[in-house]
Amino acid sequence: MGTVRRVSGADDPQLHDYVGLTDMALRTRREPAEGLFIAEGEKVIRRALDAGYRMRSMLLEEKWLPQLADVVDGVDAPVHLAGLDVLEQVTGYSVHRGALAAMQRRPLPDPGTLLAGAGRVVVLEDVTNHTNVGAVFRAAAGLGVDAVLVTPRCADPLYRRSVKVSMGAVFAVPWTRLPRWPAGVDDLRAAGLTVVALALSPHAVDLRQLAENPPDRLALLLGTEGDGLAPATVAAADRVVRIPMSGGVDSLNVASAAAVAFWALGRV
After folding, report:
1. What stretch of H or E contains 242?
2. For position 38, which CATH number holds?
3. Is the same domain home to 82 and 147?
4. How far is Cα 209 from Cα 213, in angstroms, rounded to an integer?
5. What is the CATH number of the domain that holds 194?
């Protein structure tokens, strides 16, 4: 059972994991280095625990204690109770859901382990917006994707915003970070995957054409917001596809495009 304690002030040293959650630059450096991530809201906390992540501590507005009583009873971690004013002082924002948990990260798997036998793989190349990363993971979980790989400069899928937007789907889809890119394209191909780039290219074919007879195993490459995939990445792909558009719109947001492509090429 978690040890429940009441917090009187924002300067409590036991709240270290929760300080300055709105400082993205600080948190994206600090959280991986310290092996933690933040789960926000009852559903996300429960999904993190169900996925096997260990809780380091929990920070709750007191009114949430009854609703999370079974979680408190089931974990061996301190549970800090605080007023909403203290939560806001510690975190730097209004914590509407009133429940935060600091969770312990796990070592990321080797890319080869995830690729072995995977039929549908997604690679996020330098997607830097955490909201988009979370939305892609949610679509991946719901539309039959087996694994997600992120490039070295891609945003952290376990950053609080990504986890929140995904509604915990980041815990449902196996993922890891590639150590090298775009050289990693060769690793995808060596694992037996057909490498498909989603890009606005003169050589791109209609997504529907590929969907009529998709490869048994494929890796779909999605690029960063605005610029899309790097030209070298597009050139390295086996196939290049585009989503047909109308109304003078040339492309979709990366998360929206991902959902369309997952549905067209998926197995749900």
Report:
1. strand 239-242
2. 3.30.1330.30
3. no
4. 7
5. 3.40.1280.10
Average pLDDT by stretches of 10, the chain with 268 residues: 88 95 94 97 96 97 93 96 93 86 97 95 97 98 97 97 96 96 96 97 94 96 94 97 91 95 88
238 within 8 A of 230, measured Cβ to Cβ:
no
Q: What angle do CA 38, 171, 114 make, to 5 degrees?
A: 130
Question: What are 197's strand-pairing partners?
Answer: 221, 240
Measured over the CA atoms of residue 47, residue 255, residue 145 and residue 181, the dihedral's sign is negative
Whether the model pTM is above 0.90: yes
Shared domain for 152 and 98, answered yes or no, is no
Name the 3-class secondary structure at 221: strand
CA distance 98 to 169: 21
